[in-house]
Write a structure and sequence with these properties.
single chain, mainly beta, 14-stranded antiparallel beta barrel, about 5% helix, elongated, Type IX secretion system membrane protein PorP/SprF
Length: about 325
């Protein structure tokens, strides 16, 4: 989530953190650029997250992601746009950029994908919500506009770079990603920056049923997953279990901070996904396990994905033995 602005000039170093989506594989380009183009020939996904809905200045995040796989089946290009807003000062961050990934087959049932991400961002606060000392009279009443120079709060623009890798087979996957490698300055205090975000994620899928009849794919499976994220001194862990029975996906995840800053933030996520006629719809709710979070509400998250796979071209690739399998990770 966005870091609180708090003391705009009173702290010597202020660090922001990224949003943690509860449907990491629906927002997989945000998780790891190496996922670009791996699941579909083309896809476009909209995601919306509303955290602490009963709190004034609720934290809201929106994301648009799209990826396109080139005909060589090895390279793909993606678009990723994130918009975050929250806090009493209406702190907003808009970030837009591209991802690129290239994959290769290492063995009969082993693939690797490497990806990169570059984005341009802007962060600002709504200084119209601020009240300065020269606006108050002796009785503490507001007297009118301030003479404070507002250019101090002009948007902070920055470039951010990231990279990631993914290793997968027909039943397992493991990925590493590093975001904000250049640690861009984004804030109003000296040294206010986006710290590097390091992430590891993986899982295993056990298939009870896996078949394709008349171009209709059917799957019944269970997939345990795990993830770890480190950013700015904060560590987060996640373990989950996804059950799939086409076209439904049910999931439950535990998410929490490891010993260190923010260790009280823990939640249990319940997830429901539905795939139908080229669309994927997902809804999840974070049930807060900490007292503060319970009092201000959990988090709602919605995702909608349009996916396209060229079945005729996929059949031709199988005949030419140039078909590249998709990773077995969940789609939500």
């Amino acid at each position: 989530m966005l870091a609180a602005v708090g003391a705009l000039g009173a702290v010597s170093e202020l660090q922001a953190q990224d949003v943690y989506y509860s449907q990491p594989y629906a927002t997989r380009l945000h998780l790891n650029p190496a996922f670009t183009g791996l699941l579909d020939d083309f896809s476009a996904t909209l995601a919306y997250r509303n955290q602490y809905p009963t709190l004034i200045g609720t934290l809201q995040s929106s994301q648009l992601a799209a990826d396109y796989r080139f005909r060589d089946q090895r390279s793909a290009l993606g678009l990723l746009v994130n918009a975050d807003r929250g806090g009493g000062l209406n702190l907003t961050r808009l970030e837009a950029g591209f991802t690129y990934a290239y994959r290769t087959r290492l063995a009969q049932d082993l693939y690797a994908s490497a990806g990169a991400h570059a984005a341009y961002g802007s962060q600002r606060i709504n200084y119209g919500n601020l009240l300065f000392g020269d606006q108050l009279d002796a009785d503490g009443n507001s007297t009118g506009p301030s003479a404070e120079p507002v250019e101090l709060y002009d948007p902070k623009r920055y470039l951010t770079l990231g990279a990631g890798g993914l290793l997968y087979s027909s039943q397992a996957w493991f990925g590493l990603a590093a975001h904000h490698l250049n640690q861009p300055l984004i804030g109003y205090a000296t040294g206010a920056k986006l710290p590097v975000r390091l992430a590891a994620h993986g899982g295993y899928k056990y298939y009870f049923v896996r078949s394709s009849v008349k171009q209709q794919y059917r799957e019944v499976s269970l997939a345990p997953t795990a993830a770890y994220t480190y950013q700015g001194g904060s560590q987060r862990a996640e373990v989950g279990l996804y059950g799939t029975s086409t076209p439904l996906i049910l999931g439950v995840l535990w998410r929490g901070a490891l010993p260190g800053p923010g260790k009280a933030q823990q939640s249990l996520v319940t997830l429901l996904g539905l795939a139908w006629n080229g669309f994927r719809f997902g809804y999840s709710y974070d049930v807060s396990l900490s007292r503060f979070s319970r009092e201000v509400g959990g988090a709602h998250e919605l995702t909608l994905c349009l996916e396209k796979i060229d079945l005729l071209e996929a059949a031709k690739r199988r005949l030419r033995r140039k078909n590249y399998a998709a990773p077995p990770c969940p789609t939500f």
